[in-house]
Amino acid sequence: MNRPRTMKFGFCIMSDIDEIGFFSFIENLNYDSAWVADSQMMYSDVYAVCTLAAQTTKRLRIGPGTAICGTRIPPVHVAAMATLNRMAPGRVFLGIGTGNTAMRTMGQKPMKIAAFADYLRVLTGLLDGKVMDYAFEGRSRPVKMLRHDTRFINLQPKIPVYVSGFGPRAMALAGEYGDGLVFAIPPRGVAVQDALGHVRQGAARTGRDIGGFRNATLTNVALLLPGEAPDSDRLKRSIGPNVMASVYYFYDMVQETGIEPPDFLRRIWKPYCALVEQTPPEHRHFRTHEFHYTDLHPGEAELIDEQLIRDTCLVGTPDELIEQIRALERDGLQEMVFAVGNETKWRLAEAFARTVMARL
Known about the structure:
Elements: E1 8-14, H1 21-28, E2 33-37, H2 46-55, E3 61-64, E4 67-68, H3 74-87, E5 94-97, H4 100-104, H5 113-127, E6 132-136, E7 139-143, E8 161-164, H6 168-177, E9 180-183, H7 192-206, E10 214-219, E11 221-223, H8 233-257, H9 266-276, H10 284-290, H11 306-312, E12 314-316, H12 318-330, E13 335-339, H13 344-355
Parallel strand pairs: 1-2, 1-13, 2-3, 4-5, 5-8, 8-9, 9-10, 10-13, 11-12
Antiparallel strand pairs: 6-7
């Protein structure tokens, strides 16, 4: 007999109220989870989409991936999640982050780490049914979720919290407050054991036991057809927007801090900046993230080559991807979540399930 696979697989879905059928589609393909993007200036509302997804599935784990702390106060996120937990008890989770894209589409910066830590303190305490001191508009008062043990919402079964961490301090907060970590792996992220080391450091600060702690990576995958080049027109249409999302992120970093662009972007940096600078400065935050994971602006496809795809994605034939996944699993990775925001996700989900998942 084949042993059950231990690596879990999911999709990060750009919230689209017109594509609720994708949730049951991936459930029937034996995916484990659906992470629903929260970006209020671009997509359908994350909790409306999660609600409909919960109604149309039976097994799939569902949750925001990730919810944005800067756009909703902790009690609002808890009420939304506890409502989902009443609809689909035991199969919802909360991914939570500081909100790079969601905040930057408004011309704002993500929440700072110290504020994020306090946000997580209140959020996780409320999810545990505790009374928490919470400051709202400068006035601190004790708060708790009322009547959760009788009607309206469920805090049980426990709703796991995955903290989004792309740097050491945020990863440590996952160990201090979270039940899991969602992060980025190489080539553009952090090795699994390094990330888990930061988690353990955070847990040690408070003597917290993190037995049962989970981890998941949000990543891009380029599944090659036989003889296909990584920079084929087909793959550019599919994952080109994912590739450019990394470029958008670093554009903001360079403009705000004056750092040099990373080495993997140097060869395209000037032509990319020239594209952005066609937009007036006061409206550039509209342009840089508008097509996040969904589309390409004119001129962007020409910047994407094989090396840029390899620098931002897991790339390979089914056999090659299986080897890469097994290596990541040996390193301690537990779940892989693929972000695809256009119509090619249907084809990718089916092909990956058939040629990779079924063989693991």
